[in-house]
Specification:
With 324 residues, this protein is mainly beta. Helix content is 11%, strand content 39%. It contains four helices and 24 strands. The strands form seven sheets. The chain has an eight-stranded mixed sheet, with no helix packed on it. Strands 15-16-17-18 form a four-stranded antiparallel sheet, with no helix packed on it. It has a four-stranded antiparallel sheet with strand order 19-20-21-22.
Length: 324
């Protein structure tokens, strides 16, 4: 499954092997591009979110702070100097237009202000009477995953927001931040996405040619697995997920073990099935392999496994979890 980046940035040196660079307290790494690492930090004291960059992982420059205007899940610095933001839980609201995505300005005094919310073309929001808050309309209740499971992936000229739960991909222009297209894995209608869907995207990485390589569960797994084999919430820790859902996930994998591989082309917004890359799985047979599924792009531009080792439940907890 898609997971947050580790708390250590790994900076490639000329000699083999990564150099682990400790991060300053509280800065969460987001991505690396144009010779910089980028990260963010939430300050509880003034309810602000700071945007940082570093040329070496040791010395960090504060680009600016967004104060009391929504919670930031992820961001990208655009070519025009503005910020593309993905929100967490509650939407950004500008001129009564809510969205999980927004464009922000960085001012010379270090202040960051919201400029516009990005209309996804989906009539998903409704005002909550008597408040200044918004909620998702019933047909689009599953879209709350955009504010939880979204990850930005940077490609040449594009920033793609990947909602890993439902396989919803939003393609933004990397210079201006405008939304270019909305795409769904398996061609599903957005109104049909459900909170009962299985987690769709196992992993995604940009390719040297500007496309994305994406691994997913099968369509049957996405549509039926959690309906037939219901599990608890997807927000649990790995250890809690293993103990509480191990037997259920084993039954799911027994029925739907396939891993599908796709090339996603941001220019056209199309998914094309591709052969399983060498050294990577076409099937997952154990829940710990599902939870620990990872792959990266090597320096040669070829995908390679980067599996997180997740232990199965201990014997004393396995019986309680229903593991045979």
């Amino acid at each position: 499954m898609l997971q947050p980046l580790p708390k250590d940035l790994r900076h490639k040196r000329a000699d083999p092997g990564p150099q682990v660079i400790p991060l300053p307290g509280g800065i969460a790494p987001r991505y690396a591009a144009q010779g910089y690492f980028f990260g963010g930090r939430y300050d509880k004291a003034d309810r602000s979110y700071g945007f940082y960059r570093s040329p070496d992982g040791h010395h960090w420059e504060l680009l600016g702070k967004l104060r009391k205007q929504g919670s930031v899940l992820d961001f990208r610095l655009l070519a025009n100097g503005k910020l593309l933001l993905a929100g967490f839980a509650d939407p950004f609201v500008i001129d009564r237009r809510p969205s999980y995505f927004a464009i922000a300005n960085i001012h010379g005094d270090g202040e960051v202000t919201l400029e516009e919310s990005i209309d996804l073309g989906i009539p998903m929001w409704q005002p909550i009477p008597g408040t200044q808050r918004w909620s998702l309309r019933k047909p689009f209740a599953a879209m709350d995953s955009l504010g939880i499971w979204t990850r930005f992936v940077h490609t040449e000229g594009r920033v793609v927001a990947v909602d890993g739960w439902h396989g919803l991909l939003l393609v933004f222009n990397a210079e201006r931040g405008n939304l270019e297209r909305v795409c769904t894995l398996f061609g599903r209608d957005i109104a049909d996405l459900s909170s009962e869907d299985e987690f769709a995207v196992l992993g995604v990485q940009p390719c040297p040619d500007g496309q994305l390589l994406l691994a997913s569960r099968s369509m049957d797994a996405v549509l039926f697995s959690r309906k037939v084999h219901p599990t608890s919430g997807l927000g649990a820790t790995v250890s809690a997920w293993q103990v509480g859902n191990y037997a259920t996930h084993q039954r799911s994998l027994d029925a739907y073990p396939d891993v599908l591989w796709w090339e996603f082309r941001p220019d056209g917004g199309t998914f094309h099935p591709v052969a399983t890359p060498e050294g990577l799985p076409s099937r997952l047979l154990k829940p710990e392999l599902l939870s620990g599924f990872r792959f990266l792009m090597g320096i040669d531009g070829k995908p390679q496994p980067s599996t997180l080792l997740v232990a199965p439940p201990k014997p004393e907890t396995a019986e309680a979890a229903g593991v045979q």
